[in-house]
Amino acid sequence: MGRARAQCWECHVARGRPLDCDPPRPGAPMKTSDAPRAPGEVARAVFEALNDGDLDGFAQFSADGVFGDFIAVGEFRGAAAVRSFFVELLAAVPDFSITVEDVIADDHGAAVKWHATGTFTGSPFRGVVANGRRIGLRGVDFMEIDGGRVQRNRIAYDGATFARQVGLLPPNGSGPDRALLAAFNARTRLAGWWQRRCRSTTSR
Questions:
Q1: How many domains does one find in the chain?
Q2: Is 4 within a domain?
Q3: 144 plus 188 within the same structural domain
Q4: DSSP secondary structure string, the chain?
Q5: How confident is the model at residue 41 (pLDDT cuts 50, 70, 90)?
Q6: Which pLDDT does position 175 carry in this prediction?
Q7: Tens of pLDDT along 180-190?
Q8: pTM value?
């Protein structure tokens, strides 16, 4: 999918791309006749805008009070908060790309299966400094849509996989990973032993 020329100003700056066209007017409304209304169409339009780095277009499909529940990261309440998350993401991963693999929709919402890729070479993300690692994640969005706008979205993906890919956690099954697991289990056993000892002492 080609990158749209109508990208938002934040994304031009965040991605370090040359401004070879005039930036769009912030918040320029889409023509009502052109705006998708069916939940499945809205869901696809949201992901198309995100893949293009067009956060102005993305925002047109978000209700003012939209609730974004990023299960691996946290909750974001309101369109501005959700937008700020994606501004940070696109700044951290300048070549971010997201592909829709499947959409299942009804009259009230849509479930979207997706695959995102990119390279962590930009700004820090959630406090983690960029280190050039390659990222590839699969996930599912569960979107509640009313009146052509997303009212609530629950985003599910494997946060541990992301942590391993950027180096926060060791590779799965590696020596450091086994050592970390062993240390965690030892701590759990020690805590259990101490609790049993305390209960035994107080019961005397």
A1: 2
A2: no
A3: no
A4: -PPPS---HHHHHHHT----SPPPPTTPPPPTTTS--SHHHHHHHHHHHHHTT-HHHHHTTEEEEEEEEETTTEEEESHHHHHHHHHHHHHH-TT-EEEEEEEEE-SSEEEEEEEEEEE--SS-BTTBPP---EEEEEEEEEEEEETTEEEEEEEEE-HHHHHHHHTSSPPTTSHHHHHHHHHHHHHHHHHHHHHHHHHHHHT-
A5: very high
A6: 81
A7: 778 888 888 88
A8: 0.71
Range 111-142 burial, b when 16+ CB lie within 10 A, else e: bbebebebebebbebeeeebeebebebebebe
The two tokens of residue 186 are 């030892």
pLDDT score of 15 more than 60 = no
Of 17-31, 60-74, 122-136, which range is least confident?
17-31
Same domain, 34 and 95: yes
Sign of CA dihedral 120, 81, 61, 32: negative
Q: Give residue 77's pLDDT.
A: 97
